[in-house]
Amino acid sequence: MKNNPKKAAVIGCGFVGAATAFTLMQSKLFSELVLLDANHDKAVGEAEDIGHGIPFAGEMDIYAGDYDDIADCSIIIVTAGANQKPNETRLDLVQKNVAIYKSIIPEIAKRNYEGILLIVSNPVDILTYVAQKLSGLPERRVIGSGTVLDTARLKYALSQHLNVDSRNIHSFIIGEHGDSEIAAWSSTNISGVPLDDFLEMRGHMHPDMDKQEIAEKVKNSAYDIIAKKHATYYGIAMSVRRICECIVRDEKSILPISTVMHGDFGIEDVCLSMPTILSAEGVETHIPIELSEKEHTSLKKSADTLKNIIAGLDLSM
Ligand SMILES: NC(=O)c1ccc[n+]([C@@H]2O[C@H](COP(=O)([O-])OP(=O)(O)OC[C@H]3O[C@@H](n4cnc5c(N)ncnc54)[C@H](O)[C@@H]3O)[C@@H](O)[C@H]2O)c1
User: Fold this and answer.
1) Which atom of ligand 1 is nearest to the CA of 235?
2) pLDDT band at residue 316, thresholds of 50, 70 and 90?
3) Binding site membership of 98 for ligand 1 (Cβ less than 6 Å)
4) Does the C-beta of 127 come closer than 6 Å to ligand 1?
5) Ligand 1 contacts CB of residue 19 (under 6 A)
6) DSSP letters for the chain
């Protein structure tokens, strides 16, 4: 079905879906936003509540709908599924959420969907792979939010440590959105100045220790927040908004989204995050950033962790 570039949908209106819808309403990227949830009343309630902000933000149509209402969207964002409980890893969610995806993705596919499928539920890399297989959509149109959030967390932590604007920090978390993720320090720079030089300039004389502490803090952010407030949702909502912005405006920005890998860095047939040019058509190309040998080895290990999980999945319907 021909897609409407100003229309999007959010499937799953829990903490993440509702925060995402609220953020998208304020963004003015779309003129129509459809909310879907297995609990229809929840979707209706969120649409009404968020709709009450429209007089302050600008006109748009936001309503609870069903699969027939979303077939012509340009972006469908899937946040449905169980979230992490304290001490649970993202990979612990896989069986529950693959079962949920088996009830969602075919509904989209059978309506000849022509837009982009943006996966947010965890484990996001596995579910991006699963969504591509279950939908049969071209790989370039199935993307996961990947490490866009982790990268924002990294920039935020670095900006606080260096006392500099986070938007001037060029750095990526790559690999799994999860415990095996990697901070790509070799390519990190602050407006062109290598990170180690900038650290020294700011009076930090132990770069390796600083980097290790910051990478750990970023990796454990979700665990820390979930222990305190049971879920994370504002950071991911802003990450989804940024991804949508890039697609709607055909920006060709470089974002660390999760996509199917085909040979880059020797990684094949698994989804994980690498810096990727993203356009209105979806994935354009991966960017071969410089990695140290240690980072490359960690990336391959991250890919292997994900591949082992995929090998154990039953994707038959
Ligand atoms: N990718 C990221 O960076 C990131 C960040 C935070 C959370 N998450 C993930 O997002 C997901 C949602 O988290 P949450 O905190 O919003 O959870 P939540 O429990 O608050 O919400 C999940 C929602 O999904 C709905 N749902 C379940 N099955 C459904 C189905 N078949 N069809 C439609 N809706 C269905 C539920 O009714 C519920 O409203 C989790 O998997 C979580 O781990 C991802």
Assistant:
1) 5
2) confident
3) no
4) no
5) no
6) ---EEEEEEEE--SHHHHHHHHHHHHHT--SEEEEE-SSHHHHHHHHHHHHTTHHHH---EEEE--HHHHTTEEEEEE--S--PPTT--GGGGHHHHHHHHHHHHHHHHTTT--SEEEE-SSSHHHHHHHHHHHH---GGGEEE-TTHHHHHHHHHHHHHHHTS-GGGEE--EEB-SSTT-EE-GGG-EETTEEHHHHHHHTT---HHHHHHHHHHHHHTHHHHHHHHHS---HHHHHHHHHHHHHHHTT--EEE--EEEEESGGG-EEEEEE--EEEETTEEEEE------HHHHHHHHHHHHHHHHHHHT-----
Could you say which of 52, 177, 204, 262 is catalytic?
Answer: 177
284-310 pLDDT, tens digit per residue, is 999 999 999 999 999 999 999 999 999
Predicted local confidence at residue 123, as pLDDT: 97
177 is an active site residue = yes
CA–centroid distance, 97 to ligand 1, in Å, is 9
Residues in the annotated binding site for beta-D-fructose 1,6-bisphosphate: 155, 170
